[in-house]
Amino acid sequence: MDTPGAPVQSRRSLWPAVLVGGLLIAVGVAMTLIRMAPPGPRGGLATGPEGGGGPPVGRPAPDFSLPLMSGGTLSLHSLRGRPVLLNFWASWCVPCREEMPLLVRLHNRYGPRGVEFVGVDTEDLEADARAFLTRYHVDYTLVRGADERLMDAYAVPGLPTTVFIGANGIVQGKVVGGFVGSEGERLLIERLDRLLESAPR
Questions:
Q1: What residue numbers bound the domain in which 56 lies?
Q2: Residue 86: which H helix or E strand, with range?
Q3: Is the terminal CB of the chain with fewer CB neighbours within 10 Å at N or C?
């Protein structure tokens, strides 16, 4: 799993802390892991290709069927044969706002070449999500994640998180954090080019 420069917002960021003692233990463990982890791109953490749990890189992507924001439903298996960029986001997530213009721009470049962009709106109010999409002129496929089961299946630790799925339905990689700045754009283009290589000729 790669970690771009922009921070992630924890999926639990809106929840109050309930046990101070447990929090202190967690901080101690996290600091130990940070000291042990090698530096990643732009000072992020390189935590391994599987990102501390599923979906395992090299394994089938967990399937789902979720409501489309345009109406109807979308099942992941219906996209088999096409490479997929699966982006978990929310309107309140600051790094999501920072990376969205790049995602829209690269969708216009890679969508016609066969890459399916799918945005999964999570932990959000629908009205806020729709206002966000209008503001950033998001024109690719969007679904609403009604609960956390899909985030758990993909081991999403924070937002945004992007999963890259090959045309054969196998997970190629997962990136936690926003694709921002020139380095973020370079990394995303590199990932998209790899996805295209998985598409049938």
A1: 9-16+46-197
A2: strand 84-89
A3: C
Q: Cα(first)–Cα(last) distance of the chain, in Å?
A: 27
93-97 mean pLDDT? 97
Which pairing describes strands 65-67 and 73-75: parallel, antiparallel, or unpaired?
antiparallel
Q: Is 200 helix (H, G, I), strand (E, B) or coil?
A: coil
Q: How far apart are CA 128 and CA 136, in angstroms?
A: 12
pTM of the model: 0.78
Treating both helix axes as pointing N-terminal to C-terminal, what angle do 126-136 and 94-110 enclose, rounded to 10 degrees? 50
Question: Rounded distance, CA 155 to CA 170, Å?
Answer: 16
- By DSSP bridging, strand 116-122 and strand 84-89 are parallel
**How many domains, the chain?**
1
* DSSP state for residue 154 in the 8-state scheme: T
> Is residue 25, in this structure, part of any structural domain at all?
no
pLDDT tens for each residue of 33-57: 333 333 333 222 223 333 445 567 8
Domain annotation covers residue 31:
no
Q: Which whole-number Å values give the CA distances from 93 to 100, 148, 174, in the listed order? A: 11, 16, 18
Distance CA 167, CA 199 (A): 5
